[in-house]
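Need FHA domain-containing protein's 3D structure for a figure. Predict it.
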Amino acid sequence: MPIKVLIPALLSIILQYCLVVLIYYFLFRIIKMLYLELKADPSPALSFQPAGLPPQRASLLVLDSGSSNLQAFRYYIGETMTVGRNSSNDLIIDDGFVSYDHACISQYKAGYWLTDLNSTNRTYLNGQLVADEVALHHGDIIKIGTVTFKFER
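Structure prediction for FHA domain-containing protein:
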């Protein structure tokens, strides 16, 4: 009779220890996965953002307004931003060297892209003529007419 009672009791103790070991192994794997994920690619959602400020977005900072009277010194870029003299543009530059529909900045492919819209006086990026769609990087200098912008992201 003692063997019939001893075997289930022993089996119960072994299963309890196995369960405790599995729980600790599970916790170890979760902590390791979190550590590796945070170490490899910190999420922007976890970065410090002071309360009351808008989230960091791409923008154009006016470096030189030339002969134009612009409304602001910084223009935030949404999914797209059109630039020109036409009142339907997002950024209106009242300058004779700027076409009615001069350029467009679009966000896709995980970045921002600048396109010249066949303007008369062309668009320049870092002193180079923009012939095709080009990717924008933080610190790029964009010249449209007599106005110079700095792209910030």
